[in-house]
Amino acid sequence: MRKPVIAGNWKMYKTPKESLAFVDEFLPLVKGHDRDEILLFPTLTSLERVLDATAGTNVHAGAQTMHWLNEGAYTGQTSPTMLLSIGCRQVLLGHSEQRLYLNETFERVNLKLKAAISHGIAPMVCFGELLTEREQMQTEEVLRTQVRTALHNISASEAQRLAIAYEPIWAIGTGITASPEMANEAHEIIRQELAHCCGAETAQNTRILYGGSVKPDNISELMAQEQIDGALVGGASLVAETFAKIVQYK
Ligand code: PGA
């Protein structure tokens, strides 16, 4: 049984004050909710405060990315040990906005993934195809290559705390969602490739979340799919009441 994860990706939104106001409103709304794991990815300036404000609750928080080295002359970067020093034990890696606008590559995601694992930070790695790739029927090949590159040399035991998010790039922030069947099919491809890389048991146990315009009114049909083990929610995670509705899907 894979426990579902509902994660909110706040991207470059919310000051620390706004983040804390969200947490204050959100915690009572999801109090006692145990069916799904609940996770927030705030910006770095809010992360420590959100971690402190959610400590001991059913809501967890992680960083939106990190570097793979512990320190060095890398302006603008944050290291795994720095995340650990503020109590952060989860990280999102390879989000498509990092790939599209900040030159993130799956080779680097692989380095970051290895660093996260060796530091005991649970990684959530994002995969997904462009609209042109889908139109040219390249989705399967693209996803398989992405998974193979990101998971290169990751063993089954190392992949134990790995989670994956399938986010078709054309569905992110566009209001267009992949149909539940389309998402399910992509998740199946990712799970097969995961089995090739890290073994059948890892593939069976790894949560694969769907992301891309998830809203309170489409979450239930997505979660009804066999291969969908959660959601990575951008825009609709910014309002406490809306995100709580998503967490409480039927
Ligand atoms: P969206 O973003 O829900 O606003 O489409 C999802 C994501 O980028 O993680």
How would you summarize what this structure contains?
With 250 residues, this protein is α/β, with parallel strands linked by helices. The chain has 11 helices and 8 strands.
Topology of this structure?
Layout: E1 5-9, H1 16-30, E2 37-41, H2 44-54, E3 59-61, H3 80-85, E4 90-93, H4 96-101, H5 106-118, E5 122-127, H6 131-135, H7 139-150, E6 163-166, H8 180-198, H9 200-205, E7 207-211, H10 219-223, E8 230-233, H11 240-247
Parallel strand pairs: 1-2, 1-8, 2-3, 4-5, 5-6, 6-7, 7-8
Bound molecules: 2-phosphoglycolic acid (PGA).
2-phosphoglycolic acid (PGA) binds next to β8.
Description:
The protein is an alpha/beta fold and 250 residues long. It has a single domain (5-247), classed as Aldolase class I (TIM Barrel, Alpha-Beta Barrel), CATH 3.20.20. The protein is built from eleven helices and eight strands. It has helices at residues 16-30, 44-54, 80-85, 96-101, 106-118, 131-135, 139-150, 180-198, 200-205, 219-223, 240-247; strands spanning 5-9, 37-41, 59-61, 90-93, 122-127, 163-166, 207-211, 230-233. An eight-stranded parallel sheet has the order 3-2-1-8-7-6-5-4.
